[in-house]
Amino acid sequence: AQKVTQAQTEISVVEKEDVTLDCVYETRDTTYYLFWYKQPPSGELVFLIRRNSFDEQNEISGRYSWNFQKSTSSFNFTITASQVVDSAVYFCALSEATKAAGNKLTFGGGTRVLVKP
Amino acid sequence: DTEVTQTPKHLVMGMTNKKSLKCEQHMGHRAMYWYKQKAKKPPELMFVYSYEKLSINESVPSRFSPECPNSSLLNLHLHALQPEDSALYLCASSKQGVEETQYFGPGTRLLVL
Hints:
Chain A has 117 residues and is mostly beta strands.
């Protein structure tokens, strides 16, 4: 069975500090897909990034960056120069192929990020 | 446009009521999903529809009844719910395929009294 672990339940930082969110996953699939979502207090899950297992290039998008390391089964997420608007719960997720149509996401427990002014 | 809409935003219902949650997307996605999310927990998959047919039911109690009337709409009919069913109900849609991204709606916050 697939599993995603986000060991940090809550991180509190002061604005402009960097924050790194850890994500470790387990899967027997050789091809798989990893995602990060942001859930602000309003409740909607906002898609941030998708990464496939055969592309280990790190990615930067504005203040966000992602470090995918297949050797350690990790897909970490860094917010640089955090802002109050970054306060949210962040979920790491792993997509699972199923015999039925449609994919299943296995979510980590989420990390709550609180950015103080 | 990656918008999934859900109505209502909030819903309060008694245990004997019948109500429905609605979800709509116009991205041409042929897979649609219902999730349930309790406070401080990750979303839990309830149902998956693929090409308007139910493909996955995660052993959800029969008091939750999904319906997909067409490729853009997904409903969740609620009847005889329990207080422990109070949660945020999220709808999502995606193209077919394990690699595809699921896009979520804003959710319906349900309170069962």
